[in-house]
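Section 5: illustrative case.
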């Protein structure tokens, strides 16, 4: 049964399949992120994380924009002389982006239009980024006298290679979805009229996997990057044991049995059936 909710700056709908479509909802401001949007996102992501009906979380934008970055009027100018308000808003963004990055559920950014500045931190938090070919990305900060701060420089430099990160930060030039994929900023780029279908296909594919195995896989992938070889071996061995111990579906054992004994499926070509099927 579909569910929906609308707050001041964010709305979401969980469809019958379990895909939670979360929308930044200030289309008239190109979904610029004001403090209220960050507070709404904190509430929404915490809610979806603990709602069993939401299996996959998709972040997208209303109208023609994904997000035009931090709201220059309400996030920056209005809090220039109010450090407490700035601090709260900044941390709300960090919190919800962290919720997304560490969510037990798979998260997909569906980039339908503009993506500027602070929006890269939101984008980087998602596991998978599917963009419209003609979306417009840019580090505009150089154009109006600030650094790509709030960790935009960090996440951009981590995703793109050094040459690209330097070039786009220094020139402020925009780039499209196809270039975003080439640079490693996005996973996949498709014509805009196929964007939702493509995201739905990926979400369905992810929902065929065991949810706990999927959660552990994304955690492992996210964490090993900062480890050296030995630490990564140790961590993955321990994490793998923990997964076997807690996986309620016994996915590994079923997978072995179905491949080796029953010969009913090929793990290289698709997922083993979910336990309750
Ligand atoms: N902060 C505050 N307001 C913003 C905004 C932002 N980041 N991005 C857009 N808006 C507002 C505009 O001020 C305008 O408000 P108004 O209707 O009250 O005048 C409204 O959204 C529509 O923007 P507009 O510029 O007319 O739309 P556009 O489609 O012609 O251009 C952008 C879209 C995104 C290219 C352009 O708005 C822009 O450059 N925004 C700033 C992007 C940026 O530098 N972001 C980094 C912030 S860290």
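Designed sequence:
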């Amino acid at each position: 049964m579909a569910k929906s909710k609308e707050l001041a700056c964010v709305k979401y709908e969980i469809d019958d399949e379990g895909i939670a479509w979360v929308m930044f909802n200030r289309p008239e401001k190109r979904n610029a992120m004001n403090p209220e949007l960050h507070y709404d996102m904190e509430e929404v992501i915490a809610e979806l994380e603990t709602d069993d009906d939401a299996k996959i979380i998709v972040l997208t934008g209303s109208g023609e924009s994904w997000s035009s970055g931090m709201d220059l009027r309400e996030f920056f100018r209005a809090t220039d002389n109010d450090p407490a308000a700035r601090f709260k808003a900044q941390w709300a963004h960090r919190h919800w982006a962290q919720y997304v990055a560490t969510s037990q559920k798979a998260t997909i950014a569906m980039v339908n239009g503009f993506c500027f500045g602070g929006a890269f931190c939101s984008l980087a938090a998602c596991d998978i980024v599917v963009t419209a070919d003609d979306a417009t990305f840019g580090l505009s900060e150089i154009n109006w006298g600030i650094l790509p701060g709030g960790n935009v420089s960090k996440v951009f430099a981590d995703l793109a290679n050094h040459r690209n990160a330097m070039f786009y930060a220094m020139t402020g030039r925009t780039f499209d979805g196809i270039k975003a994929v080439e640079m490693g900023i996005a996973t996949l780029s498709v014509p805009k009229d196929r964007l939702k279908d493509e995201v739905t296909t990926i979400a369905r594919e992810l929902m065929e996997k065991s949810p706990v195995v999927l959660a552990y896989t994304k955690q492992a992938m996210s964490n090993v990057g900062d480890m050296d070889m030995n630490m990564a071996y140790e961590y993955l061995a321990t994490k793998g044991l923990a997964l076997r111990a807690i996986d309620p579906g016994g996915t590994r054992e079923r997978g072995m049995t179905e491949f080796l004994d029953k010969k009913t499926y090929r793990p290289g070509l698709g997922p083993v059936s979910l336990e309750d099927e």
